[in-house]
Design goal:
By secondary structure, the chain is α/β, with parallel strands linked by helices. 49% of the residues lie in helices and 9% in strands. The chain is built from 19 helices and ten strands. It has an eight-stranded parallel barrel, surrounded by six helices. Helix 13 crosses helix 14 (306-319). The chain starts with 5 loop residues before the first helix and ends in a 10-residue tail after the last helix. Pathway: Cofactor biosynthesis; thiamine diphosphate biosynthesis. Pfam families: ThiC_Rad_SAM. Keywords: 4Fe-4S, Iron, Iron-sulfur, Lyase, Metal-binding, S-adenosyl-L-methionine, Thiamine biosynthesis, Zinc.
């Protein structure tokens, strides 16, 4: 038997090698996974040309995955530094790397990623078109936009963010419904500007079937971009965001009709009390396709700490249906993240993803938490470091304020509740001040 995409294989009843790998990672019956992929509720992004990939699955019934954004820009163009970020991200457990390069030799960087990196690789072709053609935005033709999609496919990227939901009708709706902020999506703003200057329809929407044919040929997952996501709390869940989501729901079905895997990109800034409802709306309109969220950031006033605002929103979003969290670093809204920022962003996202997996009952999600509890009960510091999400930081913090006695920490000393409970339950006398 032959197949074109993971979805095509799943619908034929074929278990692919990638499904076997993902099922083992998830401790899931491979037949159950195949059924989820056949329905479009789970995906395995894996371009046929990405030969170094270690496949991962994305879906609300699977462990929550995280994506790390990076790439070359005009102000930060050291390719080796970006590769170091990639390698560190993979070591720290990021399942996906998204190359958002917007300057220089983007293709060399992209091909290096798909040659060397085992993580899922994503891109946004609309950025690269502006760099590649090096001409005025209004002069890029519909054919040239699509040619960039094919180039990225040939280069081996596993998923592409395509801003195809912001069509002419959405363009007019956005102009007639004013926001506090405007479009904050880079790709969305580029396509909005292109439509405004040319008067033409969004080529990714107009020629959507051609885009799908490329994706089917290489088994690329469509990441349907949220051009109209809110950039501040005041704009969350407005007419533009929901209107675009309705279009994305229609485009999801058209992709499935061609056996193309799909995920939906979600809101950026959103009050806490709107997150769960947004997840339900997305699951309904997009028929259970995996949801990929940036945050959501739950307040607008924390530049320098937006990894925290995003982790709060991400944990809630994943609990209620999101399956893929795009990390946010402390540098968000301020600069390109450095190596330390990348680490902070990954750790915050991993905490959010793990907390959500526990909340939604993913089998085995609490296993490490239980081991950590046992280590703390025994006051076994080496075991505590072993089960920490960031062992290096945990070990450093303890070393920087070493306690007088090894079986306590410098916070509690002889007042340590754990030590005293262990002793009293063992029948010992506890004399806190005399010790």
């Amino acid at each position: 038997m032959s197949y074109t995409t993971q979805m095509d294989a799943a619908r034929q009843g074929i278990i692919t090698p990638e499904m076997e790998i993902v099922a083992a990672k998830e401790s899931m019956d491979v037949e159950v996974l195949r059924e989820h992929i056949a329905k479009g509720h789970a995906i395995i992004p894996c371009n046929k040309n990405h030969t170094s990939i270690d496949p991962s699955g994305i879906g609300s019934m699977l462990k929550t995955k995280i994506n790390v954004n990076l790439g070359i820009s005009r102000d930060c163009k050291d390719m080796d530094v970006e590769i170091e970020k990639v390698n560190n991200a993979v070591k720290m457990g990021a399942e996906s790397i998204m190359d958002l390069s917007s300057y220089g030799d983007t293709r060399t960087f992209r091909k290096r990623l798909t040659k060397e990196c085992p993580a899922i690789i994503g891109t946004v072709p609309i950025y690269d078109a502006v760099v590649y053609y090096h001409k005025a935005l209004k002069d890029i033709t519909a054919k040239e936009w699509l040619d960039i999609v094919r180039m990225h496919a040939e280069d081996g990227v596993d998923f592409m963010t395509i801003h195809c939901g912001i069509n002419r009708a959405m363009y007019e709706r956005f102009k007639n419904n004013k926001r506090l902020m405007n479009i904050v999506s880079r790709g969305g703003s580029i396509m909005f500007a292109w439509m405004a200057m040319t008067g033409e329809e969004n080529p990714f929407y107009e020629h959507y079937d051609e885009v799908l044919d490329i994706c089917r040929e290489y088994d690329i997952t469509m990441s349907l971009g949220d051009a109209c996501r809110a950039g501040c709390l005041a704009d969350a869940t407005d007419v533009a965001q929901i209107g675009e989501l309705v279009t994305l729901g229609e485009l999801t079905q058209r992709a499935w009709d061609k056996d193309v895997q799909v995920m939906i990109e979600g809101p950026g800034h959103m009050p806490l009390n709107q997150i769960a409802a947004n997840m339900e709306i997305q699951k309904t309109i997009c028929k259970g396709a995996p949801f990929y969220v940036l945050g959501p950031l739950v307040t607008d006033i924390a530049p320098g700490y937006d990894h925290i605002t995003a982790a709060i929103g991400g944990a809630i979003a994943a609990t209620y249906g999101a399956s893929f969290l795009c990390y946010v670093t402390p540098a968000e809204h301020l600069r390109l993240p450095n190596l330390d920022d990348v680490k902070e962003g990954i750790i915050a996202s991993k905490i959010a993803a793990h907390a959500a997996d526990i909340a939604k009952g993913i089998p085995g999600a609490m296993e490490l938490d239980n081991k950590m509890a046992c280590a703390r009960k025994k006051l076994d510091w080496e075991e505590t470091f072993k089960y920490s999400i960031d062992p290096e930081k945990a070990r450093r913090y303890r070393a920087e304020a070493a306690p007088e006695k090894e079986d306590t920490c410098s916070m509690c000393g002889n007042f340590c509740a754990v030590k005293n409970m262990n002793r009293i339950l063992d029948g010992e006398i506890v004399n806190i001040f005399d010790e």
